[in-house]
Write a structure and sequence with these properties.
Among the domains are: 39 residues; 141 residues, no CATH class. Helices cover 41% and strands 18% of the residues. The strands form 2 sheets. A 5-stranded antiparallel sheet has the order 2-3-4-6-5, covered by helices on one side. A 3-stranded antiparallel sheet has the order 1-7-8. By secondary structure, it is an alpha+beta fold. The longest helix is centred in the middle third of the chain and has 36 residues. It has 6 helices and 8 strands. The radius of gyration is 25 Å and the shape is globular.
Length: 261
């Protein structure tokens, strides 16, 4: 099947983050003007970024409320301040520590967006949320083991096959990534486990790159390798469901089973 237009991840992020020079941005926009599919990818990514910003910006902290006390007599003012000064300093320190603790995951995620690991993690997260928001519908489905093996052989150089699925677990089908992810050959396999939506990002082991998912994505990555293929199982679940449910058919007809990630 024909692939969707791909925009290099670094180029897309630079344009959306305003990091291009005016000349680079002009050339990029000129390309978009002549490529409706690429323009739609950029619009879709911008909508996802704006949606995440709206959804995950922490609410402003409410101002502290202090008890109202009657003013002490003029002669007692100094002793009243002395009695309460320590409490006020402790309360201010507690508020400062609490605000720092709450803000840390968001601050760290913003820092990670400037690193290769953070940029790739954002791409993984955005593609997961894009397919979920679009109804979790595959672009195509392999109806036989032979078709599944042929698809992975063509894309990854390895005939990968699912094992027998336990009850409540199913493979939904394949989807396209909007941008290059681990590499330009990264394949996205949609699946469900007990109703939970899972996306597996599959590529050759030699193409694998480290990444960190944004704190606000609500996602976890479960990684495994089998027969020269790496599988990143991404979902909100804290445990892997599919990493042990694949095997590889070798050229001589042998089978490599996966023991799990």
């Amino acid at each position: 099947m024909a692939d969707r237009p791909r925009i290099p991840e670094d180029e897309l992020n630079a344009y959306l983050d305003g990091a291009m020079t005016p000349a680079q941005a002009g050339a990029f926009e000129l390309r978009l003007a002549g490529d409706a599919d690429a323009a739609e990818v950029v619009r879709s990514q911008r909508r996802i970024d704006e949606s995440l910003r709206r959804a995950f910006v922490p609410p402003p902290a409410a101002p502290p409320v202090f008890p109202v006390r009657e003013a002490p007599a003029s002669g007692a003012r100094s002793s009243w301040l002395d009695r309460n000064r320590g409490w006020a300093v402790a309360a201010a320190a507690l508020l400062a520590v609490s605000a720092s603790w709450l803000a840390w995951p968001y601050a760290r995620s913003l820092y990670l967006l400037s690193t290769p690991e953070g940029k790739l993690g954002r791409g993984i997260s955005n593609n997961y949320h894009a397919v979920v928001n679009a109804g979790f519908k595959p672009k195509w489905v392999c109806t036989t083991d032979e078709e599944f093996a042929a698809t992975t052989k063509e894309r990854l150089g390895v005939a990968l096959l699912p094992c027998a699925m336990p009850e409540g677990v199913e493979i939904v089908g394949w989807a396209y990534a909007d941008t290059d992810l681990i590499s330009c050959n990264t394949s996205m396999l949609l699946a469900r486990a007990d109703g939970e939506q899972i996306v597996m990002f599959i590529d050759k082991v030699q193409n694998d790159r480290a990444f960190e998912l944004p704190a606000w994505s609500g996602l976890n990555d479960h990684r495994t390798e089998i027969g020269g293929v790496v599988i990143h199982e991404v979902s909100p679940s804290p445990r892997a469901r599919f990493t042990s449910l694949f095997h590889v058919v070798t050229p001589d007809g042998g089978i490599i089973f996966n023991e799990g990630g």
